DNA sequence: AACCTATCTTGACACTGTCAAAATAGATCA
DNA sequence: TGATCTATTTTGACAGTGTCAAGATAGGTT
């Protein structure tokens, strides 16, 4: 999971610096993963890439736009994972739903700071440049909604609600679990057993089949 | 919903400045409510209260500790609202559950920046001084858990799970809805009709009685 | 009256995001 | 080829941030 330059000559490229934009994104993502989102400053990032403080401003309007670009990458990764889940054959639909739910929380727990960036407020609240971000984020949302709708059609998720509402609520549940876990509220990130149990509990609550156990 | 000084002489008090600590908390809360959490800087806060930049450091170890104190106040307010819900008589338990869920999201939507502070990472991730914060936060969590347990005992919430797990998942759902809404992800804060519908959907999913509709 | 100690201020440091103006160098066209 | 254009990068600067160290102040205590 890392940025790749579009060309082969990643090291030294044609223009002044070459693919500064890509390297900024790549280095930014690495800082986020290793030192956390709060440790990412434009200046340190520029230094890491070996360029002056203001060079990034010729590739991103401001810091927020750079963060949006990294977050967009995160959404691409998550969308890919959704595709993988969709493409799995010889698997029951209940199992696919379980995997979807568990994968969602896993993705957040494995990339807490990236997830934090993807769903942190600064990015979404600034109404300026979120257009590019939404372009990558909405497919993921749509994917999830399509999943839910298909499970409703197949009768393993309740049909008393619109697919929009149900997908919003299920998403909220997974998002809420992810947030509480990675923010260290009430429970700890490293307690993977408890996290898995929470996912399992959520899945069972939604699945129609296991309602008899209630 | 505002800080009150313990004494009557709020204006000018005994010591150097008087109840600087309380005024810092009060002014900080006001900034958060009016200008948002990101607009709150120690320096502007000090200026607002009419004191030098470093004066707050004699009442709070650092900025995080001040934020924790404000967040703790938020938890007190929320706990009070939980009590109000608990004390309501001539109301069905299903209705009490509905009200609990709706109130949770309402509280977040009405005080987005305070909620953001209460459940934002910086506060919870710093392991130093969260002791005082937990003292005010955990009663709220416990309250919620007791609610869930009582509803399980009364047979309106599924009993196939431990009250801990179920309360964690229900809390996650409400927290997730709240976060998605106030962070402006996918839906807008001001679309109160949609938010209410999401709450209603979540409530129906959890309540045993409405399972037949599924 | 002398001291103590909590409180507050001034000065300073390192860090941040961002703008304006100058410098550089690849690309384009004569 | 050489001149010019334009995208890119740099240097300098500004306002703002959290926080520390050292000094000033003033109420409470002996």
Automatic annotation (TrEMBL), chains A, B:
Residues 41-60 bind DNA. One of its GO terms (molecular function) is DNA binding. Keywords: DNA-binding, Transcription, Transcription regulation. Pfam families: TetR_C_33 (PF13305), TetR_N (PF00440). Transmembrane segments: none annotated. Residues 18-78 form the HTH tetR-type domain. InterPro entries: Homeodomain-like_sf (IPR009057), HTH-type_Tx_Regulator (IPR050624), HTH_TetR (IPR001647), MT1864/Rv1816-like_C (IPR025996), Tet_transcr_reg_TetR-rel_C_sf (IPR036271). It comes from the Bacteria. This is TetR/AcrR family transcriptional regulator. The lineage of its organism: Bacteria, Pseudomonadati, Pseudomonadota, Gammaproteobacteria, Oceanospirillales.
């Amino acid at each position: 999971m890392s940025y790749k330059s579009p060309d082969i000559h990643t090291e030294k490229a044609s223009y002044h610096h070459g693919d500064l934009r890509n390297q900024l994104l790549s280095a930014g993502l690495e800082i986020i993963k290793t030192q956390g989102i709060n440790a990412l400053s434009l200046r340190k990032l520029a230094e890491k890439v070996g360029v002056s403080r203001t060079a990034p401003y010729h590739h991103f309007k401001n810091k927020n736009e750079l963060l949006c670009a990294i977050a967009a990458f995160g959404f691409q990764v998550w969308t890919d994972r959704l595709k993988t889940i969709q493409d799995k054959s010889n698997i029951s639909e209940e199992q696919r739903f379980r995997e979807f739910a568990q994968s969602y929380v896993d993705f957040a727990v494995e990339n807490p700071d990236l997830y934090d960036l993807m769903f942190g407020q600064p990015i979404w609240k600034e109404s300026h440049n979120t257009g590019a971000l939404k372009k990558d984020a909405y497919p993921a949302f749509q994917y999830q909604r399509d999943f839910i709708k298909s499970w409703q059609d197949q009768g393993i998720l309740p049909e008393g609600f619109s697919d929009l509402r149900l997908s919003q609520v299920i998403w909220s549940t997974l998002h809420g679990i992810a947030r509480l876990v990675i923010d260290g509220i009430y429970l700890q990130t490293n307690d993977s057993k408890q996290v898995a149990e929470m996912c399992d509990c959520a899945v069972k609550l939604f699945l129609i089949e296991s309602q008899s156990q209630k």
